[in-house]
Design a protein that fits this description.
Strand content: 25-35%
Radius of gyration: 19 Å
Distance between the termini: 22 Å
Number of helices: 3
Strand order of the largest sheet: 1-2-5
């Protein structure tokens, strides 16, 4: 599902809300998650999962075109761990 499909589904479920109001709510939702992760925090949505960040150490990578070695700096990357309820839904017969 892409963002526009999410907005469309939310609008179908909440016809009393204007499209721009729904878009504003979705923007705030994603912005708050991103802001919390940028601060080094964690976001947990019960029944869905938890977003956090993980540290990646500096390493030596390779340029796929030339094959030459490239230095890759240490960085933080987003991480998602699915919750128990969503894992059970995915594996239900």
């Amino acid at each position: 599902m892409i963002r526009s499909e999410l907005l469309h589904e939310l609008h179908k479920d909440n016809p009393e809300l204007h499209a721009d109001e729904i878009e504003q709510v979705v923007d705030i939702f994603f912005d708050e998650i991103a802001q919390r992760l940028a601060e080094g925090g964690r976001v947990e949505l019960r029944g869905f999962g938890a977003f956090s960040t993980r540290e990646r150490e500096a390493r030596t990578g390779r340029n796929p075109r030339t094959g030459e070695s490239v230095s890759v700096d240490a960085k933080r990357v987003p991480y998602f761990k699915a919750g128990k309820e969503i894992r059970e839904r995915l594996n239900a017969d």
